[in-house]
Amino acid sequence: LPNWPGVIENYREFLSVSESTKIVTLKEGGTPLLPLLRIPDIIKAPISLYVKLEGQNPTGSFKDRGMTLAVTKALEKGAKALICASTGNTSASAAAYGVRAGLKVYVVIPEGNIAKGKLAQAVMHQSVVIQVQGLFDQALEVVRDVSKTHPVALVNSVNPDRIEGQQTVAFEICDVLGSAPTFHFLPVGNAGNITASWMGFKKYRDIGRIAALPKMVGVQAEGAAPIVLGHVVPNPRTIASAIRIGNPASWTGATNASVESGGEIIAASDEHILEAYRMLAREEGVFCEPASAASLAGVIAYARKGLFRQGDVVVCTLTGHGLKDPETALSVPYTHISVPPSREAVLEVLGF
Ligand code: F0G
């Protein structure tokens, strides 16, 4: 969009900012809602399928929508420093918005367990990176505790400003489609995003911008599926490191969204997540990170079970960019062709 102003300016009337609030923005939001061309046929689903490309936000994930508001409000309240626990994307976003606001940023991450691109972002933006010898869930406990007693503003999605900002994804989807989709699929980790998206759809319904609400389907990774199992998972495991979370902070928000909307929270195996991840890249030219593809894995599972009706409009949130995690992308066998720098050698590979 020409002169896209960022999510706070664009959706000011729905967000708790005043005329005098100094807005911290990297012009996040306004991301494409892309129709998929081939996958509906491949999975034999009679649906219109769209992906919301959240990887096109300034730091490469949906977190920027909440971070712009959380950092704006923290600055307004006089914060001098920000802190978060993260599986990588929140830390990348906090680091960048912290720079923008002139605040010190501390990010607490599970050691050895975040994708390289995300770590690179936190490092480049000069945040203090604290690696804990433990899991995300433990890191979150520590930062919640520290922020209660010390002057550092917590910018995880337990901060309501994060959730409020992240609602804007639902506004954008409805603004483009002219109504809500029939189904909205998204990956679930700490469960802030499904909570926020559902809140956004309900707000648009309440003010009459949309008539019907979507069914919300949250997808957890099978080895990190506490909501599906109904209990905390002490040692979550999945290739999708962004959602390797055993005790989601917004657990209730996720169950409310699924129950109220007539949707559900389901689990996808790593194998199915990777199948969806590769299918998007191979068939649609869309490169997202593995956790993001959990949403499409959910759609594929629904199609296999025949749960869609003719004409359903289905949106998947693709939460983060594929370049965040080059290691998973390169973990498959791929053809490495090495030739001398000559016309003949290249033509030989081309088969001419
Ligand atoms: N997809 C990606 C790429 C994520 O980074 C996350 C969460 C999710 C999905 C799940 O969203 O937590 O709102 O249910 N990442 C957090 C982080 C935990 O620290 O970056 P959620």
UniProtKB/TrEMBL annotation:
Q: Which residues form a coiled coil?
A: none
* Sites where the protein binds pyridoxal 5'-phosphate: 89, 189-193, 319
Q: Kind of enzyme, top EC level?
A: lyase
List keywords of the entry alphabetically.
Amino-acid biosynthesis, Lyase, Pyridoxal phosphate, Threonine biosynthesis
Q: What is its EC number?
A: 4.2.3.1
Record-linked PANTHER family: L-THREONINE DEHYDRATASE CATABOLIC TDCB (PTHR48078:SF6), THREONINE DEHYDRATASE, MITOCHONDRIAL-RELATED (PTHR48078)
Q: Name one GO molecular function term.
A: threonine deaminase activity
Q: Which reaction does it catalyse?
A: O-phospho-L-homoserine + H2O = L-threonine + phosphate
NCBIfam families named in the record: thrC
> Where on the chain is N6-(pyridoxal phosphate)lysine found, per UniProt?
63
Q: What is this protein called?
A: Threonine synthase
Residue ranges annotated for the Tryptophan synthase beta chain-like PALP domain, each copy included = 24-320
In the record, the note on similarity to other proteins reads: Belongs to the threonine synthase family.
What function does the entry list? Catalyzes the gamma-elimination of phosphate from L-phosphohomoserine and the beta-addition of water to produce L-threonine.
Hey, which pathway is this one from? Amino-acid biosynthesis; L-threonine biosynthesis; L-threonine from L-aspartate: step 5/5
Q: What cofactor is needed?
A: pyridoxal 5'-phosphate
- In Gene Ontology terms, what is a biological process of this protein? threonine biosynthetic process
